[in-house]
Design brief:
2 copies of one chain form a homodimer.
Chain A lengths: L1 H20 L2 H22 L8 H18 L4 H18 L6 H18 L1 H8 L3 H4 L2 H20 L14 H25 L6 H29 L14 H4 L3 H14 L4
Helix pairs in contact in A: 2-3, 2-5, 3-4, 3-5, 3-6, 4-5, 6-12, 8-9, 8-10, 8-12, 9-10, 10-12
């Protein structure tokens, strides 16, 4: 528990330093790095490409997805296309190492996951108040995670989806929804008071419910993959928390939600 | 052979009718339909999602990728995100039907292949002379295919990659490169003479070489997947040719090439 809290503290300090005290390039590099690590976890730790040179190609592609899609969504295409050429060139010359499954999984780790995770970067860069907005997916995901844990421990009785995650309960899940709503409302109040935002409380509450729901789905989804390949954690980059995909499993699903919501709705 | 030629003739007549004599909406619907069929071939014919409800969800996603990315590259994100929510929601509630491999393969069939194939549509819609430009990926791919076949039959001696495609020869491959270059030069000459384009012959020749190379890679890549799952053809939508992925295997790789080239270079 001590390691877990210490490691979280280090993470939060790093996050604040990068987002609030350094030029935007620092955030781009940081998120790109996280995406490369996530690709390594999804394709290396799981064993899909373990020991293959293609693992590193996937990490390089994952590194470039955030910067390309932040400059312009159109630039996903050149990254995706180059990746396609390289991966299939490798596959046809190494047909035993690289089968249909591995090819497909490589796209998931190298392109899809980085594209979703880098929503965080696009929120930060593309909005005037990006430095406030960027916290939304984290507030929704982590308030949900925390309250789900607490509610589950206190009231947990009915299993949610035992085949995927044996410890999760319906009571915990509902607690997560509530936690996320409360987190969003407090966040709206604080930013309204101290950062001159105009919180729209009803919208924030709705976004909290939806954010918690997709965040919990993200958590379960990444657990399902771990269960499929028989690993406990995706990595140990954050001692006590596991890998990037363990800590950001919910954020992977809340970040694109808020990127899309912010296009259409005034939350703050 | 008769079926093959007849079927090609029908295809070409349909293509001309849709691209040159109907409003642009017809091309959008036609390409969207081809992408949905391609997804069905990659995920149904191969057996990946055979009999699963998710097969149809993938076809629907594949149908919307062309129109979304043609309106704006940014709209890939909502399609990808909704697809992510649906597929993982299904996966966690059907953990035995939908494993890591099937999830990843679904993304390949529902998002990646349609995104690459719909380059054809984006070339057609986004350029003033789109109706001329749209032929480039087909000229490169099919002149390469045809000349590779002829050169292979006449001079074929040294196997290219027997483990993936036992009949292909190095001589055939070189013939394909030459065929594509000749095709591009003739195409440049004809469009320059009759459609007032300004062909840049050196660039066209280079594009011909690169186009043939990636087209042949596309051909081999789609063959590799067939070989992995043990099928001969992806479908029979075009009698004598097979499925969309059999006939458009090279175009799948030449289309994004030309979409990207046309952003930066004046070919015509």
């Amino acid at each position: 528990m001590k390691t877990r809290i210490l490691s979280a503290a280090v993470g939060i300090v790093l996050f604040i330093a990068v987002v609030y005290f350094m030029p935007p390039q620092a955030a781009i590099v940081a998120i790109s790095f996280l995406c490369a690590v996530a690709a390594h976890e999804m394709l290396g730790t799981t064993g899909v490409l373990r020991g293959s040179k293609m693992l590193w190609v996937c990490c390089v592609a994952a590194f470039f997805v955030p910067v390309a899609t932040t400059i312009d969504a159109y630039y996903l295409l050149p990254v995706l296309y180059l990746f396609t050429l390289v991966i299939f060139l490798f596959a046809i010359t190494h047909p035993k190492q690289m089968r249909f499954e591995q090819i497909a999984q490589s796209y998931l780790g190298a392109i899809v996951v980085p594209y979703l995770l880098s929503s965080v970067l696009r929120i930060l860069v593309h909005h005037g108040a990006g430095k406030v907005y960027v916290l939304l997916p984290f507030v929704a995901a982590w308030c949900s995670d925390t309250m789900a844990l607490v509610a589950g421990m206190l009231f947990g009785k009915h299993k949610l989806i035992p085949a995927v995650s044996p410890k999760k309960t319906i009571e915990g899940s509902l607690g997560g929804l509530l936690g996320s709503v409360i987190g969003m409302l407090i966040f709206g109040f604080v930013t309204g008071r101290y950062f001159h935002t105009q919180p729209h409380y009803l919208m924030l509450a709705v976004a909290g419910v939806v954010g918690s729901a997709v965040g919990q789905l993200g958590d379960l989804s990444l657990s399902l993959i771990k269960r499929n390949v028989g690993i406990k954690d995706y990595g140990k980059i954050m001692p006590g928390h596991g890998g990037v995909l363990d800590r950001f499993d919910s954020v992977l699903f809340t970040a694109p939600l808020f990127e899309l919501l912010l296009q259409f709705i005034n939350l703050l």
